[in-house]
Write a structure and sequence with these properties.
Blueprint lengths: L4 E6 L3 H4 L15 H4 L3 E5 L2 E2 L7 E2 L3 H9 L7 E5 L7 H14 L8 E6 L4 H9 L2 E4 L5 H20 L9 E4 L2 E3 L3 H8 L7 H6 L9 H10 L4 E3 L1 H15 L4 E5 L6 H22 L5
Parallel strand pairs: 1-2, 1-11, 2-5, 5-6, 6-7, 7-8, 8-11, 9-10
Antiparallel strand pairs: 3-4
Helix pairs in contact: 5-6, 10-11
C-alpha cells in the first residue's frame, strides 16, 4: 500500500507575477506546514534548462526560494525542472544545483523531478537518469489521458537501466479550492480566477472569453480543477489513483484564485478532511 503524501507547489507563471513583486514573501500564500500535515513544498517553472545542456538560473531564484523555504523543513523541499533535449541532463542538473549553492540558496532540495505535461520526453529522461516524475498537467484532459503511458515509459526506461521504478517518486499536481459548500467555494474564487483565463485558454483547458462563472464551471466539468467540498477533492484524488495505478505525492498549486484568508482556510480544510481521510484509509491502489 502506498503512503500517499500531500503538499503544495509554487509555480510563478506570468499570470501570478502580475500580482506584484515575485520576490515578496507576501506574494505566496502558504500554510503552516507542520501544523497542517503538509509534507512537501515544491518549487517549479523558474528553472530553465536550454537544449544545449547548459543550465541557467532565473535571477529571482535565490530570493524566491529563500522566501518559501521558511515555510517547510529542508527535507520537504523539492524542485521540478524542465528537461533539455540534450542527452547530458545529469550534467545540467549538477550545474543547476551548483549555481543555486553559489547563490547561497538556504537549503539544497532533497527531491528533483522532471516536469511533464503530455509529451513522453520527461518520462523517458527521468526513467533513464533516476529522477522523479512531476506530472504538472495531470488533470488537464490531455495530461490525464497520458498518465498511464507516462508511467509505462518511466518504468520501462528504469528497467532498461537496471532499476525498478518507484511509484513514490511520481508526483501529481491537482488544482483545488475547498469550502464547506461548492457554492461558497465558487464564490470565493471569483475574486482572482479570471487572471488565469488566458493561460487556461492557451493550454486548451477552456475556451477563450468566458465569464468568470462560466470559467469556473468549465474547469469543474472537465475535471481540471476542484472548486467545491472535501468530498469533491477525495473523488478527484481517487480518480487520479485509478487512472495511474498509484503515485507518491499530490501537490496543490499555491495559486491566487481566492484572497489570502479564504486560501488559507481551503488549505486547512484540505488538511483536516482530505489528508485525514487518506491517512486513515490509505489510497485505494497498490
Amino acid at each position: 500500500m502506498l503512503n500517499l503524501k500531500f503538499g503544495l507547489i509554487v509555480t510563478p507563471t506570468d499570470n501570478e507575477l502580475r500580482r506584484g513583486d515575485p520576490e515578496s514573501q507576501e506574494n505566496w500564500v502558504l500554510p503552516d506546514f507542520p501544523l497542517l500535515n503538509y509534507e512537501a513544498l515544491w518549487f517549479a517553472d523558474s528553472f530553465v534548462m536550454p537544449t544545449t545542456g547548459e543550465s541557467a538560473v532565473n535571477p529571482h531564484v535565490r530570493d524566491i526560494v529563500n522566501a518559501i523555504v521558511r515555510h517547510a523543513q529542508p527535507s520537504n523541499i523539492g524542485l521540478g525542472i524542465l528537461p533539455p533535449l540534450a542527452k547530458n541532463i545529469r550534467s545540467g542538473v549538477d550545474k543547476l544545483l551548483s549555481q543555486l549553492q553559489q547563490q547561497q540558496v538556504t537549503d539544497k532540495p532533497t527531491a528533483i523531478a522532471l516536469a511533464a505535461q503530455v509529451s513522453p520526453e520527461s518520462a523517458q529522461i527521468a526513467g533513464i537518469h533516476d529522477y522523479g516524475l512531476l506530472s504538472v498537467g495531470a488533470t488537464t484532459p490531455a495530461g490525464f489521458g497520458a498518465l498511464p503511458s507516462h508511467w509505462e515509459i518511466y518504468a520501462r526506461k528504469a528497467k532498461e537501466n537496471g532499476r525498478k521504478a518507484q511509484r513514490d517518486k511520481w508526483t501529481l499536481v491537482a488544482p483545488m479550492h475547498l469550502a464547506e459548500t461548492r457554492e461558497k467555494a465558487m464564490h470565493q474564487v471569483l475574486t482572482g480566477i479570471d487572471q488565469y483565463a488566458p493561460l487556461y485558454a492557451e493550454m486548451g483547458i477552456t475556451p477563450s472569453l468566458l465569464s468568470r462563472e462560466a470559467l469556473i464551471e468549465t474547469l469543474i466539468e472537465n475535471h481540471f480543477a476542484v472548486v467545491g467540498t472535501p468530498d469533491d477533492a477525495i473523488n478527484q484524488i481517487n480518480r487520479l489513483l485509478v487512472q495511474t495505478g498509484g503515485f507518491g505525492k499530490l501537490l496543490l498549486p499555491a495559486n491566487h484564485w481566492a484572497n489570502s484568508r479564504d486560501t488559507l482556510q481551503s488549505y486547512a480544510l484540505f488538511s483536516q478532511t482530505v489528508i485525514a481521510h487518506f491517512k486513515a484509509t490509505g489510497p485505494s491502489s497498490q
